[in-house]
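Readers outside the structure-tokenisation community will struggle with the description of the input data as it stands. I therefore recommend that a typical entry be quoted early in the introduction. An entry of this sort, consisting of the sequence and the corresponding backbone structure tokens, reads as follows:
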Amino acid sequence: MPRLRSRAPAAIAAFTAIPLFFSALMAASLALEKPRVVQWTSGGHLKTTWHDPSSATEVRIWLWALVPPMLLVLAGFAASFVPYGFYVVCGAAIVDALAVTHRLDRWTAHHTARFPNGVDLIPASNPGSNKFDPGQWEGMAQSTSLSLEHWTIGIAVGAALVSVALVVRRRWFARRPPAPIPPTATTGGAPAITPLLELETADSDLVRGGRPGPSRSRPGR
């Protein structure tokens, strides 16, 4: 079984997946969202109305938006078992972000064509209720997706640079431990013993001569 080297790749993958998801959501909306078109003939003329997108279309948009961040999280989990996995997942986040927006201009143009009255489905001839002109919401969605893409790439690049700086600091600028003190050489003689307690011998019966002190008479003398 592969050995887990670090949880850092999975952590940075989950963090960068947040802006990536919202970037993918904007891109998926531009690529997949379309109104429900109803057409009929009246007085020999073809009439067309546009209604809000169906629930199935909304579900497709959300599911496709979840694909890029889920792939990034899986890449982060797999990178936790390989050497230099942190840098691998940072590179994967950059590639994933670029892939999400690689056809953003085309998707923006197609979305604008599918909503000729704007996303509010209200024609510009009704200024009292019209909120979005054709292409106005698409331009905001495109800029938002690109901005979130830049945030994703910036987080990945910044995390990689911080990791490199920590490695350099630990390897070349870390404080070195002091050199160990060599042991003192000993000779072959007996070690000197320092007395810790000096016996009081002033009144001892064992020590007499040469030291003044009161003499004691023993019984029987």
The radius of gyration is 42 Å. The chain has one domain: 8-125+132-172.
